[in-house]
Amino acid sequence: MEMSTVFHVVTIFIAIILLSSDPLDVANANSEGDALYAFRRAVKDPNNILQSWDPTLVDPCTWFHVTCDHDNRVTRLDLGHAKLSGHLVPQLGSLHRLQFLELYKNELVGPIPKELGNLKNLISLGLYHNNLTASIPPTLSNLSNIKLLRLNNNKLTGRIPRELTKLK
């Protein structure tokens, strides 16, 4: 085959791949990967549990401890008892299809980001047995699908927000 023919075949192949990909799926995967990687940068990981979290990979669904749905959207983050230390990041609130956020029994510090109240599909929020401080953000009352909210054994201060009483 001539060099120009090979070039045209490769160009057509790349064009087909690009046209068959849904740009919205790629954009969602990138934004979700960015949110997860922001968390990765905010924590220390002495056991290298997060070593597969490579920001150069477009799809965070290939990362360990991350589960995705059929649309390749993040639905579950399982990092309980992982010996992570550091703090939660507001970007986690952009994982709109997240159903399970399990970060219990780590050494996380600082406040619970109010942005976690954006996770309308969240069923379970496990932040217990950490060293989280400050008050519980009232925005957690926006978690309309929550079934299990565990914040015990932290260093949270203040009263439980009255808004949380509207959760079913």
From TrEMBL:
Domain Leucine-rich repeat-containing N-terminal plant-type span(s) in chain numbering: 30-69
Stored Pfam families: LRR_1, LRRNT_2
Presence of the UniProt keyword Kinase in the record: yes
SUPFAM superfamilies found in the cross-reference section: L domain-like
Gene Ontology molecular function: kinase activity
Signal peptide (UniProt feature, chain positions): 1-29
Alphabetically ordered keywords of this record: Kinase, Leucine-rich repeat, Receptor, Repeat, Signal, Transferase
Gene3D superfamilies in the cross-refs: Ribonuclease Inhibitor
InterPro entries per the UniProt record, alphabetical: Leu-rich_rpt, LRR_dom_sf, LRR_N_plant-typ
Domain of life of the source: Eukaryota
Descriptive protein name: Somatic embryogenesis receptor kinase 1-like protein
Species in which this protein is naturally found: Trifolium pratense
